[in-house]
Amino acid sequence: MWRKWRYLLPVLVFALGFGLARLDAGLYRQPIAQVTAVRVSHTAPQKDNLGNNDRLTTQKVSARLLNTARRGELIHFTNVYSYSGAMDSRLSQGSQVFVSRTSGGYQLHDRKRDGVIIGLFGFAVALLILVMRRRFVLSAVSILANVGLLLVALHVEIQNHQTLAWWLFTGLAVLFTAVTTVLVVGFNRQAAVAGLATIGATAAGVALGYLIFTLTGYKNLHLESVKYVTQAPQLLFYVQIIIGALGAVFDECTDITAAVSELAAGGAARFRAGMAIGRNIMGPLIAVLFMIFIADTFTESVLWLRNGNSISQTVIWVMGLGFAQSLVSAFGIVLAVPLTAALAAWAAPKEVVA
Fold first, then answer.
1. Residues 328, 206: contact at Cβ < 8 Å?
2. pLDDT tens-digit map of 260-286
3. Which residues, in sequence order, are bridge partners of residue 32?
4. CA 317, CA 324: separation in Å to the nearest integer?
5. Residue 208 CB: number of other CB atoms within 10 A?
6. How far is CA 190 from CA 171, 243, 273, 341, in A?
7. How far is the C-alpha of 261 from the C-alpha of 349, rounded, in Å?
């Protein structure tokens, strides 16, 4: 019976997390109120100088405080929201919101969204436990360890004002690989092969990209765009490539290593098998990584196009960096295939050979 209904567990966990978040107002210091009544008082069209049309609606809201010493008190405030919903949202009866006390009463601060966040987090964890079972614990520890390393690296980087940034984040990539490999693969020969191949292929891919961009003078790569407004935009650009490509390269290297290590064949046959496996998986990995980089620029691209910029200008200034990052990451994914196949064939236990 459990096997038949177990995949409903994530749904139940989501419902439980969402429901508990509706009752956690007492854990917050900032006043939280639940909307009891809403009345639309005014609606007006809005048009900017670029011809973008929107509509602003004013709501008169009544709500009841859920926490603080004034818990249970009925308050009133105004909410103005746009049809586009870019920086605001429509309130309805039952909505929970953060408010702040002013001299004239209360003012809306933001919507309370922790219910959806907690529910989705619980849904994801429950689903991963069902799918991964015992391996979930090691994967979770790996994620937490990597998050901790990242926080430490960011703290050190800020304290040193970017003087050690390149070496710091390069070392962070090595630590990410080592920690993830040991916790996910184990402390064995396969982990050593996968880790070395991941670091080697990522470094080779980034070095090749750096050489190409330097020789071409970074033509049509606008690192001065808003996204990279910092003291070292070039450094930030390459760090993003390293961290972004590391996961895909690691996934590819572990798959090839695990498959090649189990083959009962000679070194040459193992190498050919590793190359064949790599050819089959590197295409989807490159496509996924490309979509991730482009998706990161999609919303900004729509904004540029909606504000009258040409497609070519939008691609060059907004999506161009995503294309470049995808290209460099693809170098690492492609180079990982022969490197991993060679290392795995060489390091595989000789006693397996038939």
1. yes
2. 887 776 778 888 888 888 888 888 888
3. 98
4. 12
5. 16
6. 22, 22, 16, 12
7. 8
Say what percent of the chain tops pLDDT 70: 92
- Six-digit token pair at 104? 């004239």
**C-alpha span between 13 and 6 (Å, rounded):** 12
**DSSP character for 70?**
T
What would the pLDDT profile of 87-113 be if each residue is shown by its tens digit? Answer: 788 899 989 999 988 877 888 888 998
Please tell me whether residue 304 adopts helix, strand or coil conformation. helix
| Statement: the pTM of the whole predicted model exceeds 0.90 | no
For residues 249 and 174, the answer to whether their CB atoms sit within 8 Å is: no
The pLDDT of residue 162 is above 70: no
Q: Give the per-residue pLDDT at 181.
A: 86
Instruction: Look up residue 271 and give its two tokens.
Output: 């190498």
Neighbours of 148 (CB within 10 A): 11
Q: How far is CA 212 from CA 10, 230, 263, 331, 336, in A?
A: 47, 23, 38, 11, 19
| H-type alpha helices, the chain | 2-5, 9-21, 114-132, 135-159, 165-184, 189-215, 233-261, 267-306, 311-314, 320-347
pLDDT given at position 353: 42
Among candidates 261, 322, 256, 324, which has minimal Cα distance to 294? 322
Question: Taking 50 as the threshold, does the pLDDT of residue 214 lie above it?
Answer: yes
Q: For residue 310, which amino acid is it?
A: S
CB 301 within 8 A of CB 319: yes
Distance of CA 111 to the CA centre of its chain: 23
Residue 324 identity (one-letter amino acid): A
- The DSSP letter of residue 84 is S
Closest CA to 62 of 36, 81, 86, 40: 36
In terms of pLDDT, which residue wins out, 246 or 163? 246
Picking from 126, 119, 116, 70, the residue whose alpha carbon sits closest to that of residue 96 is 116
Q: What angle in degrees, to the nearest 10, is found between the helix axes of 135-159 and 165-184?
A: 170
Hey, which residues does 63 pair with through a beta bridge? 35, 75
Segment 130-138 mean pLDDT: 80
